[in-house]
Write a structure and sequence with these properties.
single chain, 14% strand, 46% helix, 205 residues
Amino acid sequence: MNTDQRFEWPHDKVGFLSRLLDTIEHHIVPLTRRGVAAGNKVFGAALLRKSDLSLLLAETNNETANPLWHGEMHCLKKFYELPGRPDANELIFLSTHEPCSLCLSAITWAGFDNFFYFFSYQSSRDQFAIPHDLKILDEVFGIRDGGYRRRNDFWTSFSIRDEITQLAEAQRTPLVEQSARLDRLYDGLSKVYQKQKDTSAIPLK
């Protein structure tokens, strides 16, 4: 396993962040809308090529089939079913929500040197009423408030929102607008999930 991996930012950071938001909106959200209608959670993931930011794969949560198929896990499952798949170090790992402990481990074992996420653990708990990520990290690992090492010998993680706030105002404005649009989309998806989750067989709702 390769260690001490470091993600290198593209020259056009604004364009890169916009591409991540576009991927969530146009590729993950449509899958998640169907997944939520079938009783699954709102989490999704995608893989993009570092070379040109083209989409390799997008997936969504499929816990109604298997409680291990979180958005990231289901994406990795499908990735390893691809013929002639690229190496993980050639790819961007994009997650709609900050990966749970299961998905953090899977991303690590699969050899990715990065992941980017849009919604934080705190958003999953407070905005989406799904507190399990923070609770498992605390109860099982003794990690309070989601305080894992964002930069380590395996990968570096990035909050898309945090990266946007570091930009100059003129660069930041269109990305903030994209973010607000995603917030509205996911609020709608969350309402559907919450309304029907009591009838789901998912162990941790």
